[in-house]
């Protein structure tokens, strides 16, 4: 029963984790589109793309790395992998919470960020203001997916690793793990035949 439950939790964690991967890939594609637009606007400029583009690209790559570690943790159900994955997801949730609190509680939150010469940050901000309801639901769904991933990883950690044991050779097995041979091995050995005496 516990093996079936563990398998279901592993599959569910992989499925929910895939939504986070799709969001990370979407952010990477958006960042690549912004880089191309930046190079079209400034064709002869040697200046690197602004901080907002790099931030979006880094966020997308980070989400994909976290998703990859989540798939590895779900597949192996290893305690160390699950702990690392949980640390990544909880750190990401705390970072999102800090930025959200700063935006909602600080009226001059735009001064906390450096100026963006490309104007992409202002376009992004205006897009969020115009489509606030949609962006609110997208943000809540992303946070819910991350929270669900955390809960599923904790349940999987509580179930423990697989009980299967792998051995390099047959000599590594102990007789306690072979129930049919247990009685045979513990019986004393008898010698049938005439006793052999040593010669002087």
Automatic annotation (TrEMBL):
It is found in: Membrane. Keywords: Membrane, Transmembrane, Transmembrane helix. It comes from the Eukaryota. The chain crosses the membrane at residues 12-33, 53-74, 81-105, 137-156. This is Tetraspanin-19. The keyword Transmembrane applies. It is a multi-pass membrane protein.
């Amino acid at each position: 029963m516990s093996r079936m439950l563990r398998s279901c939790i592993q599959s569910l964690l992989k499925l929910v984790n895939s939504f986070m991967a799709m969001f990370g890939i979407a952010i990477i594609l958006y960042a690549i589109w912004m880089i191309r637009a930046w190079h079209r606007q400034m064709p002869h400029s040697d200046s690197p793309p602004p901080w907002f583009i790099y931030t979006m690209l880094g966020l997308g790559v980070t989400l994909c790395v976290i998703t990859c570690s989540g798939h590895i943790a779900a597949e192996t159900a290893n305690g160390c992998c699950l702990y690392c994955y949980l640390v990544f997801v909880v750190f990401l949730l705390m970072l999102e919470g800090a930025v959200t609190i700063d935006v909602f509680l600080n009226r001059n939150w735009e001064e906390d960020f450096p100026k963006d010469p490309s104007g992409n940050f202002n376009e992004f901000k205006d897009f969020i203001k115009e489509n606030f309801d949609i962006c609110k639901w997208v943000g809540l769904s992303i946070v819910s997916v991350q929270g669900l991933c955390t809960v599923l990883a904790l349940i999987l950690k509580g179930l423990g690793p697989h009980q299967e044991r792998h051995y390099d050779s047959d000599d590594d097995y102990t007789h306690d793990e072979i129930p049919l041979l247990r009685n045979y091995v513990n019986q004393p050995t008898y010698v049938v035949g005439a006793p052999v005496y040593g010669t002087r």
